[in-house]
Amino acid sequence: MRRVTSEEPVYVTIELNGRRMTGRATARMLLTDFLRRELGATGTHVGCEHGVCGACTLRIDGVAQRGCLTLALQADGRKVDTIEGLSASKDALSALQKAFHRNHALQCGYCTPGILMSFSDFLARNPDPDEREVREVLGGHICRCTGYAGLMKALMEAAAEMRRVSSETTDAELAKSQ
């Protein structure tokens, strides 16, 4: 990692949701602030700024991380995915987003981007979670509106849907290769 003085702004380049983007950051600028202020990606929310509430969760190189605990300089040259890039297009919601919509898994929506980003990573690594595992990951997020029942239902439904789609894709690929 390069060394910079505390107030010397430097250019930071990341791949944000598939697009190469550059902005200026000081040594102590948090990734959440860099995304929101420098790059205009405001979907990542800032809650507690201590890594406890989960509102700032995003993916760096495919792994869910807290943006408020990551310096912008640490993301230089890396792939950063935020809620704005979760869908394949602006007109098509991801399986997770559809399940949240169907199950009324959000109210004010402040925590929603972080929860969706955590579970996009988690379900990619664990496509068949049990309820205990989902609760454990969800325990890393604070939601003051929903009471968590809708969230649990949506997350379990999304996992099942993602498994179904993955199975159909695998079956279609096998059929093509024969």
What does this structure look like?
The termini are far apart. The chain has 178 residues and is of the alpha+beta class. Helices cover 38% and strands 14% of the residues. The chain has a 5-stranded mixed β-sheet with strand order 2-1-5-3-4, with helices on one face. The chain is built from 5 helices and 5 strands. A hairpin with a 2-residue loop joins strand 3 (57-60) and strand 4 (63-66).
Brief summary of the model shown:
The chain is of the alpha+beta class. 38% of the residues lie in helices and 14% in strands. The protein is globular and about 55 Å long.
Keywords:
single chain, 178 residues, alpha+beta, Ubiquitin-like (UB roll), DNA polymerase, domain 1, 2 domains, five-stranded mixed sheet, 5 helices
Could you give the topology of this structure?
Blueprint: E1 10-16, E2 19-25, H1 31-38, E3 57-60, E4 63-66, E5 79-81, H2 95-102, H3 112-125, H4 131-138, H5 149-177
Parallel strand pairs: 1-5
Antiparallel strand pairs: 1-2, 3-4, 3-5
Helix pairs in contact: 2-5
Task: Specify the biggest β-sheet.
Answer: 5 strands, mixed
Our measurement of the CA-to-CA distance between the termini, rounded to an integer number of angstroms, reads: 48 Å
Rough shape?
Answer: globular
Strand line-up of the largest beta sheet: 2-1-5-3-4
Q: Give the averaged pLDDT, no decimals.
A: 91
Secondary structure tally, helices: 5
CATH architectural designation of the largest domain: Orthogonal Bundle
Low-confidence stretches: none
Which CATH C-level class of the largest domain is it? Mainly Alpha
CATH superfamily of the largest domain: [2Fe-2S]-binding domain
Order of helices and strands: EEHEEEHHHH
Structural class: alpha+beta
Q: C-alpha Rg, in Å? A: 18 Å
Number of strands: 5
Task: Predict the CATH topology of the largest domain.
Answer: DNA polymerase, domain 1
